[in-house]
């Protein structure tokens, strides 16, 4: 029956096509489900979103075909015609996708993390979707260890698996932006033109978001060697693998990548190329406020490991009295801390150490003995308490009980009359943070609120957590980079001091009693320096 055979010949490609379509539909389905959850809460309060949500569902149905499928797709043009209406979406200016490109070990993840921290700090809610995480998730059911075989360009099944992982990440980027966030960072390799075209078509063509490609390149063998070591140390792919085998595997994996690598020379997309060895930056078609900020942030990015030291000033006479703000001098115990700090740092002989202090007397006096160039920066001054400068918490409760309660209700946003809020302080210290991001071996001597902000930045704290972070007196704090994260260590020097941490009280209402307001005020003394002025004898003031 030769006609039957012919029939099968005809059917086979159609069957294959149907399967591919089903796969796509399935993925669109998965995406929509996630989408639902994120849209509903948002739609609840906007005036009328019935049109918008219709658009959302439309755009998700027209999923981008993968690079392979695109090549086989004879009527690719039809798709772009169909999606043209959606390109005029009002969300065109709402979200930005930053797509990282480049070979492994070029510092893409570090750059992505640095950008994400700065963008979040500035109120552009940003999240990184790392394709390698999605790839590991897809592989999990098979229980296979990741090996370089996965990255061979001639292995079709594995290439498809990696393409799926990339699309998982792309879906989550889209979901993140649909939920009303500003920036999604796709941490991928995107080493071929086809992959970049897929990303651009999906986000820009179909969903109407702005796309910015950042390509990381690097030819510096020293930097590369260091980055490879970091990958072997921190990447989940090599956790628990024999080091020699892991190193061999990574080399082979990079060789596979280099075989299919097509440097980014497209002139049609907004893109930035950054050489993470020399920190040279090249741009093409970059516009938009987020993109311009990103370009600025890249100027203070570093992929080199670095270490920063922080300390509050030694205990001041105001600390002893439990007062905030002001420009008091150190107490006797504070001076002892200053000496101990200098002795410690001078003994460590840290190469090219620099010291930054605020312009207030207590930080300058604390750092004076440290043998290193010193800079006094106004941006490091303590959060200004306005009308409450120089008051103790008891006095605040007495004179401004309403202000005191409001501050407890929202310590992050509360701004002292004629003074500052934590939000203000976060913005004020940003230039210092930018400098610290690219600096190594700097000692910053500053104040409680300001150090909460700076250390919180490096530790990826949420803004709401900052005002309650503990930054004790007489303690050296070391922040050092580990891959793209930071580790935090405290070294308490054995010199007594008061505790200045005031925990949020349970009752924050404006009509609370003075006792309720003051219950968490830490103990302090009633004269400025009981150790220098003995005589009347110090009295510890304690609330409870
Ligand atoms: C998504 O929305 C559809 C209808 O709008 C609803 O039937 C479905 O239950 C929703 N799914 C989830 C996960 O919320
Ligand atoms: C939104 O528009 C639909 C019809 O377009 C209307 O039925 C609905 O009441 C509107 N909702 C709000 C919250 O305005
Ligand atoms: C929805 O879109 C249609 C045409 O696209 C328009 O006529 C209608 O006013 C829109 N409704 C709302 C509530 O925006
Ligand atoms: C960074 O920190 C996260 C969460 O703490 C952790 O999952 C990840 O493995 C860390 N990455 C590196 C490179 O240290
Ligand atoms: C300071 O007080 C806070 C709140 O009572 C407490 O959590 C913290 O452990 C104290 N710190 C020291 C060094 O005693
Ligand atoms: C706070 O104190 C006020 C006045 O004493 C009282 O009415 C209120 O219930 C208290 N609130 C809390 C949360 O304890
Ligand atoms: C979650 C949220 O903000 N809900 C608000 C939506 O708007 C109504 C009135 O317009 C408020 O009462 C809700 O609190």
TrEMBL record:
6-phosphofructo-2-kinase domain residues: 95-300
Active site location: 313 (tele-phosphohistidine intermediate), 382 (proton donor/acceptor)
Identification of the protein by name: 6-phosphofructo-2-kinase/fructose-2, 6-biphosphatase
Signal peptide: 1-20
Pfam families tied to this protein: 6PF2K, His_Phos_1
A single Gene Ontology CC term: cytosol
Compositional bias (Basic and acidic residues): 68-80
Compositionally biased region (Low complexity): 45-61
InterPro entries: 6Pfruct_kin, 6Phosfructo_kin, His_Pase_superF_clade-1, His_PPase_superfam, P-loop_NTPase
Any one biological process term the GO annotation gives: fructose 2,6-bisphosphate metabolic process
Annotated region (Disordered), positions in chain: 40-84
Protein family (similarity comment): In the C-terminal section; belongs to the phosphoglycerate mutase family.
Positions that bind substrate: 312-319, 362
The entry's keywords: ATP-binding, Kinase, Nucleotide-binding, Signal, Transferase
Matching Gene3D superfamilies: P-loop containing nucleotide triphosphate hydrolases (3.40.50.300), Phosphoglycerate mutase-like (3.40.50.1240)
């Amino acid at each position: 029956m030769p006609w039957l055979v012919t029939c099968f010949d005809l059917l086979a490609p159609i069957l294959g096509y149907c399967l591919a379509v089903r796969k796509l539909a399935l993925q669109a389905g998965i995406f929509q489900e996630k989408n639902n959850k994120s849209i509903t809460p948002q739609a609840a309060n906007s005036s009328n979103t019935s049109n918008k949500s219709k658009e959302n569902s439309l755009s998700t149905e027209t999923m981008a075909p993968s690079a392979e499928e695109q090549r086989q797709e004879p009527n690719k043009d039809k798709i772009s015609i169909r999606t043209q209406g959606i390109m005029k979406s009002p969300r065109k200016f709402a979200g930005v996708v930053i797509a990282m490109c480049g070979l492994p070990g070029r510092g893409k993840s570090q750059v992505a993390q640095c950008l994400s921290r700065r963008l979040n700090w500035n109120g552009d809610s940003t999240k990184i979707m790392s394709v390698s995480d999605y790839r590991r998730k897809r592989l999990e059911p098979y229980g296979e260890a990741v090996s370089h075989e996965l990255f061979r360009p001639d292995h079709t099944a594995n290439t498809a698996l990696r393409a799926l992982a990339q699309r998982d990440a792309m879906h989550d980027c889209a979901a993140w932006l649909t939920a009303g966030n500003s920036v999604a960072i796709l941490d991928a390799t995107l080493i071929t033109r086809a992959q970049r075209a897929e990303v651009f078509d999906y986000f820009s063509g179909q969903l109407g978001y702005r796309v910015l490609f950042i390509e990381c390149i690097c030819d510096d063998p020293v930097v590369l060697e260091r980055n490879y070591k970091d990958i072997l140390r921190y990447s989940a792919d090599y956790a628990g693998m024999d080091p020699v085998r892991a190193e061999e595997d990574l080399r082979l994996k990079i060789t596979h990548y280099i075989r299919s690598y097509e440097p980014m020379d497209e002139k049609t997309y907004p893109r930035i190329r950054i050489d993470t060895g020399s920190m040279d930056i090249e741009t093409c078609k970059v516009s938009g406020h987020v993109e311009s900020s990103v370009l600025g942030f890249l100027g203070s990015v570093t992929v080199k490991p670095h270490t920063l030291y922080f300390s509050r000033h030694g205990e001041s006479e105001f600390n002893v009295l439990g007062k905030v703000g002001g420009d008091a001098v150190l107490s006797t115990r504070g001076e002892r801390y200053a000496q101990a700090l200098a002795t410690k740092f001078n003994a460590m002989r840290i190469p090219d150490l620099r010291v930054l202090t605020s312009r207030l007397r207590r930080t300058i006096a604390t750092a004076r003995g440290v043998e290193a160039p010193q800079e006094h920066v106004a941006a490091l001054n303590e959060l200004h308490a306005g009308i409450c400068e120089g008051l103790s918490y008891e006095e605040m409760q007495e004179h401004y009980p309403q202000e005191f309660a409001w501050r407890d209700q929202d310590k992050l946003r509360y701004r002292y009359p004629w003074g500052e809020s934590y939000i203000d302080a976060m913005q004020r210290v940003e230039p210092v943070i930018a400098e610290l991001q690219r600096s190594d071996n700097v000692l910053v001597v500053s104040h409680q609120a300001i150090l909460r902000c700076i250390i919180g930045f490096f530790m990826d704290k949420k803004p709401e957590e900052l005002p309650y972070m503990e930054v004790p007196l007489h303690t050296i704090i070391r922040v050092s980079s580990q891959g793209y994260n930071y580790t935090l260590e405290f070294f308490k020097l054995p010199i007594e001091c008061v505790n200045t941490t005031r925990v949020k009280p349970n009752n924050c209402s404006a009509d609370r009693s003075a006792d309720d307001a003051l219950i968490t005020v830490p103990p302090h003394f009633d004269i400025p320096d009981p150790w220098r002025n003995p005589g009347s004898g110090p009295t510890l003031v304690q609330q409870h």
